[in-house]
């Protein structure tokens, strides 16, 4: 198996391509052989964006491309920047400049220090070599695959829409800024209009509200490093993050699909049909 196949898989469009790229950086749960955490599996699994790749797979029937990570975010997080290093986790100083985010300071950086509040991920420190291996074998190939899909769409169509797919716990915990607060059904984010035309972000939220969901914009999430990296609306390269509350489609403890799963998938398909019609229309008004 190649390094690329360890990192990601791509679902190609089944019809003529359109300028739409979706990526799911946290729906993989293939545990790499060198991932030896001390945290229990249940805690590690709490970081899993389960089934996002399946929920959104209908996009390829409209001409979109879907890129999905195979590795878990608890091993290395593809939605963090390379320099989001938590030095407390390493047995030696990182050899390059670091810029830890607030996530890293809470133990949720590029490499997680905590699986859950007060639940350390490891019972030891990691080596520089271990982290470099994760970057070279998993993180960089995944990010490169997303970058290549976006660049190809821009080259072909002159513009692209990129949707970064996530799920969230139904209630924030002590490692989150919204500790103890119930979360809406969906959060649609564009870093306060910096990664996409905000009219598109509001349009997406409105479509999900019409389908009966509580959809918020930029709260409690404003968008992570994927949309920050790829969103350049001034160049007609729009990136939007969509977070779905896990409680509306699965049991958060067992990670089993709930009876509402099929309805959510059908509603996502309805949204996708509307969105594709919108962005491929000659009179699209938010490009």
TrEMBL record:
UniProt biased composition (Basic and acidic residues) = 180-192
Tell me where on the tree of life, at the top rank, the source sits: Bacteria
Q: Where is region (Disordered) located?
A: 172-192
Q: What is this protein called?
A: N-formylglutamate amidohydrolase
For this protein's source organism, the top of the classification is: Bacteria, Pseudomonadati, Pseudomonadota, Betaproteobacteria, Burkholderiales
């Amino acid at each position: 198996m190649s390094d690329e196949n360890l990192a990601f898989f791509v679902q190609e469009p089944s019809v003529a391509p359109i300028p739409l790229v979706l990526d799911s950086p946290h729906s993989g749960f293939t545990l790499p052989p060198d991932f030896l955490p001390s945290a229990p599996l249940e805690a590690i699994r709490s970081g899993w964006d389960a089934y996002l790749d399946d929920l959104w797979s209908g996009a390829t029937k409209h001409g979109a491309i879907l890129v999905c990570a195979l590795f878990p975010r608890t091993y290395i997080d593809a939605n963090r920047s390379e320099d989001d290093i938590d030095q407390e986790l390493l047995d030696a100083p990182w050899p390059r400049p670091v810029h830890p985010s607030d996530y890293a300071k809470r133990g949720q950086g590029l490499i997680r220090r905590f699986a859950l509040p007060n639940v350390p991920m490891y019972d030891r420190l990691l080596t520089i070599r271990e982290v470099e291996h994760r970057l070279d074998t998993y993180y960089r190939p995944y990010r490169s695959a997303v970058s290549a899909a976006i660049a190809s769409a821009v080259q072909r169509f002159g513009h692209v829409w990129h949707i970064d797919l996530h799920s969230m716990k139904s209630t924030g915990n002590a490692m989150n800024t919204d500790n103890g607060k119930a979360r809406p059904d969906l959060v649609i984010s564009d870093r306060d209009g910096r990664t996409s035309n905000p009219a598109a972000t509001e349009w997406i939220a409105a479509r999900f509200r019409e389908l009966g969901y509580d959809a918020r914009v930029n709260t409690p999430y404003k968008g992570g490093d994927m949309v920050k990296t790829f969103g350049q609306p001034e160049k007609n390269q729009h990136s939007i993050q969509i977070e779905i509350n896990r409680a509306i489609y699965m049991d958060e403890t067992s990670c089993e699909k709930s009876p509402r799963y099929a309805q959510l998938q059908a509603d996502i398909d309805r949204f996708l049909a509307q969105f594709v019609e919108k962005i491929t229309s000659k009179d699209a008004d938010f490009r």
